[in-house]
Amino acid sequence: MIEFFLIGRIVNFIVRLNHLTRLSNHLHGGIVTMFDRSFLRTLICGLAVVLITDWSPGDLSAQTFAPGETIEYKVGSTYPERWERGVIIREIDGGGTRQYLIRQKPNQFFPEGFEIAYNVSDLRKIETESPPKATDGINPSAPLVRGSSTAPTEHAGDSKTGQQAETADAPKLLSKEDILSYAATLFGEGDPFAHPRREELLNQLRDLVKARGTNFQADLEFSNQLMALGAYSTHISFAIASNHGPAPKLSSYYGTFLLRAANRGSRSVTRSGSRVEVTREDSQAESGELTINEDGTYLWKPGRNDAEELWLRGKWREVADSEKPAWEGGPAIWLERAKQGYDCMMRASREPGYEGWIEVGMGVARSPVEYGRPK
Fold first, then answer.
1. What letter would DSSP give residue 113?
2. How crowded is residue 109: how many other Cβ atoms within 10 Å of its Cβ?
3. CA distance 372 to 348
4. pTM of the model
5. Averaged in consecutive runs of 10 residues, what is the pLDDT profile of the chain (375 residues)?
6. What is the Cα–Cα distance from 60 to 315, expressed in whole angstroms?
């Protein structure tokens, strides 16, 4: 459309020029000669070719993109035409048509962006792209650049783990503002999805949450704010959910826990200002009893009334960081050769309202899980 518009304008200009030169010949005795008119027409036609070439949007099907490159993709079925930013993953075989697999702009249903194939003609390069701001490594235990790092004002629950108040040497729990500020500092002002160290920075933010713990539970508004910064990932979401409150100490596992299969019973939570009250009712699915001894041994009664020959005895050890799920901080322990001869992982619950409880089950996934509260 741009080419036809320009050609029309240029032809109209040449016609007017021809008319003016003829008039000039009549009035001024042929000051403008036929040679002059021919030269001017040639000049204008040459200029038209240059303008058309420069104004033409080009053949989009001839474009090439590199993995990780930030581009714009055409949003289907929108009028007027709309383009959004995405990231190239790789080129794929589209059955004779050049296509690229891209990651679309994140939304609440696909926090990391939906992956979909696009024809190359529905993609375009970004004309002016601010280069991502490189960020030096930041020590997760270092003070935050911006935001609040004050201690939380509430500790729900009345168990020994819930009563583990922060000391002067313990890290302060992270607030929503702390995490958002830290994320903004990490990614800078460039496009976070094009940052060359994106995965490394996401892991750094996740490890910060694991090391410090949080004083809040994520909601939709917070998740949207994190998405807007390009700093949302499933690992970070899991880390926030799994590391609420101060981390327990290894000694928190010592003692006897009454186990129950499948659920922890019902509970209700009432908030009054900064105070949280939790009311519980015991589950009917009571199972066994688990004792963790300080000397590195354990005793597991699969059923509380089981005969002694059915009891499980063995050794326990602390779980190494490399053996834990990537989003879980704080200590956990392995019960070696426990139920059905499998190693079982035991971890303190950090879900609000269940401080002091433990989860235990086979493998890293702790499945099938049993829950326990101090006896």
1. -
2. 6
3. 9
4. 0.53
5. 49 57 51 52 55 48 82 78 84 80 75 81 73 39 36 34 43 91 85 83 92 91 88 88 92 93 60 62 69 97 90 96 91 94 93 87 85 89
6. 65
